[in-house]
Amino acid sequence: MGKSLTRRDEDYSKWYNELVVKADLAENSSVRGCMTIKPYGYSIWEKIQAELDKKFKETGHQNAYFPLLVPKSLFEAEEKNAEGFAKECAVVTHYRLKNDEDNPGKLKVDENAKLEEELIIRPTSEALIWNTFKNWIQSYRDLPLKINQWANVMRWEMRTRLFLRTAEFLWQEGHTAHTTKKEALEEAELMNNIYAEFAEKFMAIPVIKGLKTESERFAGADETYCIEALMQDGKALQAGTSHFLGQNFAKAFDVKYTGKDGKQDYVWATSWGVSTRLMGALIMTHSDDNGLVLPPNLAPYQVVIVPIFKNEDQFAQISEVAQQIKADLQEKNISVKFDDRDTHKPGWKFAQHEMQGVPLRIAIGPKDLEKGTVELARRDTLEKSFVEQENLVNTIQSKLEEIQNSLFDKALKYRDSHITEVDTYEDFKKTLDKKGGFISAHWDGTAETEEKIKNETKATIRCIPENTDNEEGKCIVTGKASNKRVLFAKAY
Amino acid sequence: MGKSLTRRDEDYSKWYNELVVKADLAENSSVRGCMTIKPYGYSIWEKIQAELDKKFKETGHQNAYFPLLVPKSLFEAEEKNAEGFAKECAVVTHYRLKNDEDNPGKLKVDENAKLEEELIIRPTSEALIWNTFKNWIQSYRDLPLKINQWANVMRWEMRTRLFLRTAEFLWQEGHTAHTTKKEALEEAELMNNIYAEFAEKFMAIPVIKGLKTESERFAGADETYCIEALMQDGKALQAGTSHFLGQNFAKAFDVKYTGKDGKQDYVWATSWGVSTRLMGALIMTHSDDNGLVLPPNLAPYQVVIVPIFKNEDQFAQISEVAQQIKADLQEKNISVKFDDRDTHKPGWKFAQHEMQGVPLRIAIGPKDLEKGTVELARRDTLEKSFVEQENLVNTIQSKLEEIQNSLFDKALKYRDSHITEVDTYEDFKKTLDKKGGFISAHWDGTAETEEKIKNETKATIRCIPENTDNEEGKCIVTGKASNKRVLFAKAY
Fold first, then answer.
1. CATH number of B419-489
2. Is B111's Cβ below 8 Å from some Cβ in A?
3. Residue B396 and residue B379: Cα distance in Å, rounded?
4. A275 to chain B nearest CA, in Å?
5. Residues forming CATH 3.30.930.10 domain(s) in chain A
6. B137-194, pLDDT tens digit by residue?
7. What molecular function terms (GO) are annotated for this protein (chains A, B) (predicted)?
8. Whole-angstrom Cα distance, residue B40 to residue B46?
């Protein structure tokens, strides 16, 4: 600790990697592409989980747990989905190791324990879950079926980065079945809205809601809703997706229901998920050159108290005040840590808490005891002030609220100032190069043009945004007619 | 639903399997030996998780997440542990599938995507975690390190049973590191005590705390503490274990710390875990021939309200009363479901809620409206009574408490009446055969005798119980001296 980070304007990518490790969020493991989520990072993830879980349950979803491994034959059943994930899946072929006679103390695969059918570690669980839904759904009485799963999944990515792209990651995946197309579409939209509200209100991350183009859709979906956030380096990050799966999986797994009228039909489906990738979005939305900046809603502790003392007597006196403050704050449901470690000096502690993004820091020294004050430092603005101990709880309550709102406002201001409308391909490239951010432009609606732009500029269509008016225009590449602008960006 | 279960005295094993499925707790999946935990079962597991997680955090543990896959070379590092798990582990050998040219639409393993080193799906995470702890621990300042992980693990069991023994299961695994042997031993004991208290106070399952014999210990442990419960069929079930790992893993992974005195030493370790197996213990401790019986602490909903009506008008009037009761109960933190489905009749609902073990059922019919009463049925005793609506909330509060206590008392009485002291091998076999339960007997302390008894009777030493006095005696098999009775039983 105490070592500074690479500055963002020097090397944003290096800054990110260093921050994740130095703030004790996560680190690379000895397994290629897989991360270890450290306790501090994990406790932020737990807060994300708890809030989302509450929202899922409030909207009538139930949690369940399905197996980690998917038999190859099930995986193959929905063709597009299989195609989309086959090239990056971990395959279990054997179920036993044995002693390696040639290398004492070593083990090797026991070829006598080869599986008859290979098993895939789930990259996503549609195949397995729909094969199960087949048995759970007979009649309209069984619908809607609204299930969520918190789980680990695995995609064998070649280039990995902590939180943003890892071979194994944690996520939730919702899977629902409905009697009508309309109801399934509404569910997919509802969950995208829940994600958006969660991102904005809870994580203080502004997002744009929209639809993916066909080439950017989830493999197996008829429509993919998404929320797109903008990182400080001008690159977009897909923060959550919600898919309308049509009847694709119902047909692949023969899932039919009998209606009130006695007729049979395939059910309609959705799936939706967010992952530990949100941790990456969180970091890159709010943090600065001094380290992590956390919205109070997500802080493992919102306030830290650091005592400053020269002898045992002082420490005892300060402790008494600190413990009282701690109790008063906890009574108001404010989480607080009294950092009374005698193994580290105050300066070291300050640096650590700054790196870890604790929203508010209270320092109490001998002079504060005399004056009845404390020093209060705000992590996001780095402002310090002296506050009367008497008013402290109220001050902290309002500051925490202020920080939560101000982080969102700041990020929104940045995001909004980085949506650029362009009408020519030349301006498109120039903007992408010099400013980054979202570029709002007309597109002719073809996969070919989308592909050409991607190949030439690395920018992809992040989404066809909701809530924007139609507007007649011409595709920036082909000049063909277009009736709506879409949002392009380079993306994580 | 509505179909009855096989009776316990007919076929206990069949009763269990049917109950798990009919109460909607879990079912077998299309993956050999792996289960799907259904929403109702999972919500019980969530309650187990929440309570344990709180207890872990209160005692200074932090959650983290480590990778699912363990490189073979790491897995090999602690020899006994590797030996203990090598024969039943799922092995990932490839990271890609490709199209099978011979079978259009099918996929096959891509031999060009063979891993250089095989990866094992974690059967337990000591190897991976200790390889990580190596980087986290340098000085006494980093200790104690007290980590817990909620995760899925996999052991390729040949004979599986829902919850009791499945290839994949969910669990928590605690892993701690300490400066002294004493502190590590205290931690291992503390966690075993926490498990015991949780089992008894929260799950209403009486347990016996003790130590495992050397042959029953966790592979890699110097000492294994355990809690042992007794099922209704007289078989024991190991409900949780807490291991003192000595310096075995510290040595295998070279994890040393520098003390205050500047000297280096290996750290001392513990690990401890409980799993979805607890669901099996729960079912087999309390349930009856009508289905699941749940202690109120673990019930997804503690009270269900079933309306009984012949027309819309009646339904509207009953609904109003039911909604008020629901609100009043929720205010007292009692979870309640108003089963207002119009797709099922009251009798069907009664049967379902009985099968699913809802502790209290309220039925409200037209006569109840007139009289200002409701019918209250208790799941554990099947007693019914009419209660004034006015007193309902108080009655329910006290009934729930009563049920929680009475389930424990009943199970304790059964357990205590099934601990039999025997002094001859003949009596041992006779008791095991006719009565089952725990058999308290003298044993000469050798693995040979233990093995002989196991081979001849299928009974194992469940534990060397804590809190029992020493007593001079003679081994029931060899007649050699013994100074303490140990507990034998057939076990799940």
1. 3.30.110.30
2. no
3. 13
4. 14
5. 12-69+123-286
6. 999 999 999 999 999 999 998 899 999 999 999 999 999 999 999 999 999 999 999 9
7. ATP binding; proline-tRNA ligase activity
8. 10
